[in-house]
């Protein structure tokens, strides 16, 4: 069959396509080649060769190199005797001179997600697979968790159990907000502000077994992990009040407390599964009064829908009060979830009088008549307004009567009376 080739009258060079089908496993292979020229003359040859791995320095990917191929193979196709269960992503790079370099990304299991290990050295790759097969990870990034809370301080560190001596450590940690930290230290502290990517790059020196007195072999080992923040969603009916004649009043309040993604309700005392190893304990999830000039009773503080029972006039500012604990294996993370908004509720005494242009005659008890008003005089909390015009079904109170302001969020809208429905 025709095949791509280059060479001279005495040499023949053939490079097989860069795909998974042409990967050669560790071991002995046979070759049987027959060449046919344009005149029909044939030449044949057969031989055996062995594929093995030696700890030689792997060429780094040069700046002008391009990725010319990427393919995935099962680890067993490259290392037939390995008990490791996983996939290997092979990235092939070629520079302008035609020199090629390779990058190997190892994944556990049957899915190409959450890279376990990355290197350009087949020797280190084989070492990684061997150690993993006996229950040891070659390069581990700590912490183990894949989730935490906004504001948590994350202490990144690593454990390396491969061959060679570490001569350089380099961290590259960033998040989707654009925050970035690079460090040569073993441990790096990081405040979680959004979805975070952490990469560790180790430069490893190994003696050359073929030349112990010569220059050592230098390789790079790397790994990465992602850390997501647990997002909490809260909503509430943020402004409401009632007018009272006897000092008592009732207001219906409602809201939501949810874990984004799972849409699980945050019910006090519940435990919610997060990821494959996380257990989220809802230590506290309830309504809380944080400010005001009265103390109404919250009928059921734990319920997202309940009632405020006022026995005296006044107002309150309320928030969702949430405290969570995430346990991930032997790690523990906590969050006293800060409120992002508050509600203002009030119960106020009032006075109101209405005057009319004229009163119709013949009003029968138990019936209703529409009567055009002339003026409504309203007083709430000592503030007096005269309402004289109607817009559609309501009357505008101008200027509005300010009943209460937020102490937590001073820029938020106040609780106010700005319309009257006669």
Shape estimate: elongated
Specify the structural class: mainly beta
How far do the termini sit from each other? 94 Å
Give the low-confidence spans.
1-5
- Total tally of structural domains: 4
How many strand elements?
30
**Cα radius of gyration in angstroms:** 37 Å
Give the topology:
Blueprint: E1 27-36, E2 42-51, E3 66-74, H1 75-78, E4 86-94, E5 100-108, E6 117-119, H2 122-133, E7 139-142, E8 147-148, E9 153-160, E10 165-175, E11 180-183, E12 188-191, E13 196-206, E14 217-229, E15 232-236, E16 239-244, E17 249-259, E18 264-265, E19 271-274, E20 278-292, E21 297-298, E22 305-310, E23 314-328, E24 331-337, E25 343-356, E26 373-380, E27 383-387, E28 390-391, E29 394-404, E30 415-420
Parallel strand pairs: 8-14, 16-25
Antiparallel strand pairs: 1-2, 3-4, 4-5, 5-6, 6-14, 7-9, 9-12, 10-11, 10-13, 13-14, 15-17, 17-18, 17-22, 19-20, 20-23, 21-22, 23-24, 23-25, 25-26, 26-27, 28-29, 29-30
In a few lines, what is going on in this structure?
This protein is mostly beta strands and 422 residues long.
What can you tell me about this protein's structure?
By secondary structure, the protein is mostly beta strands. It folds into four domains: 1-134, no CATH class; 138-229, Immunoglobulin-like (Sandwich), CATH 2.60.40; 232-345; 349-420, no CATH class. The chain is 4% helix and 54% strand. The chain has two helices and 30 strands. It has helices at residues 75-78, 122-133, and strands at 27-36, 42-51, 66-74, 86-94, 100-108, 117-119, 139-142, 147-148, 153-160, 165-175, 180-183, 188-191, 196-206, 217-229, 232-236, 239-244, 249-259, 264-265, 271-274, 278-292, 297-298, 305-310, 314-328, 331-337, 343-356, 373-380, 383-387, 390-391, 394-404, 415-420. The strands form six sheets. Strands 3, 4, 5, 6, 8, 10, 11, 13 and 14 form a nine-stranded mixed beta sheet that branches. A hairpin with a 2-residue loop joins strand 26 and strand 27 (383-387). The longest helix has 12 residues, at 122-133. It is elongated, with a radius of gyration of 37 Å.
């Amino acid at each position: 069959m025709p095949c791509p080739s280059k060479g001279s009258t005495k040499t023949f060079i053939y490079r097989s396509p860069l795909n998974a089908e042409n990967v050669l496993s560790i071991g002995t292979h046979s070759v049987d080649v027959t060449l046919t020229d344009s005149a029909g003359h044939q030449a044949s040859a057969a031989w055996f060769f062995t594929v093995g791995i030696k700890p030689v320095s792997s060429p780094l990917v040069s700046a002008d190199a391009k990725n010319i191929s990427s393919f995935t193979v099962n680890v067993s196709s490259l290392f037939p005797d390995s008990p490791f269960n996983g996939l290997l992503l092979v990235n092939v790079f070629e520079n302008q001179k035609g020199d090629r370099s390779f990058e190997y990304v190892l994944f556990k299991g049957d899915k190409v997600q959450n890279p376990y290990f990355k290197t350009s050295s087949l020797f280190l790759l084989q070492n990684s697979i061997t150690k993993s097969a006996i229950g040891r990870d070659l390069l581990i990034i700590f912490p183990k968790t894949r989730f935490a809370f906004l504001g948590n301080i994350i202490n990144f560190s690593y454990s390396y159990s491969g061959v060679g001596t570490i001569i350089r450590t380099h961290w590259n940690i960033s998040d989707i907000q654009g925050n970035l930290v690079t460090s040569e230290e073993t441990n790096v502290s990081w405040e979680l502000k959004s979805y975070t990517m952490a990469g560790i790059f180790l430069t490893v020196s190994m003696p050359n077994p073929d030349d112990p007195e010569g220059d050592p072999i230098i390789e790079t080992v790397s790994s990465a992990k992602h850390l997501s923040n647990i997002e909490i969603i809260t909503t509430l009916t943020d402004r409401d009040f009632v007018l009272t004649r006897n000092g008592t009043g009732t207001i219906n309040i409602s809201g939501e407390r949810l874990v984004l993604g799972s849409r699980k309700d945050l019910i006090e005392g519940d435990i919610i599964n997060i990821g494959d190893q996380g257990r989220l304990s809802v230590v506290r999830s309830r309504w809380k009064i944080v400010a005001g000039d009265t103390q109404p009773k919250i009928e059921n503080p734990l319920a997202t829908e309940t009632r405020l029972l006022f026995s005296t006039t006044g107002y309150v500012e309320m928030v969702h009060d949430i405290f969570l604990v995430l346990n991930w294996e032997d790690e523990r993370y906590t969050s006293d979830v800060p409120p992002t908004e508050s509600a203002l509720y009030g119960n106020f005494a009032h006075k109101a009088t209405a005057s009319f242009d004229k009163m119709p005659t013949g009003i029968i008890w138990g019936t209703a008549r529409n009567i055009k008003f002339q003026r409504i005089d309203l007083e709430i909390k000592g503030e007096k307004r005269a309402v004289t015009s109607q817009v559609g079904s309501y009357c505008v109170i101008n200027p509005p009567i300010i009943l209460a302001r937020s102490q937590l969020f001073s820029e938020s809208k106040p609780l106010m009376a700005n319309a009257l429905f006669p």
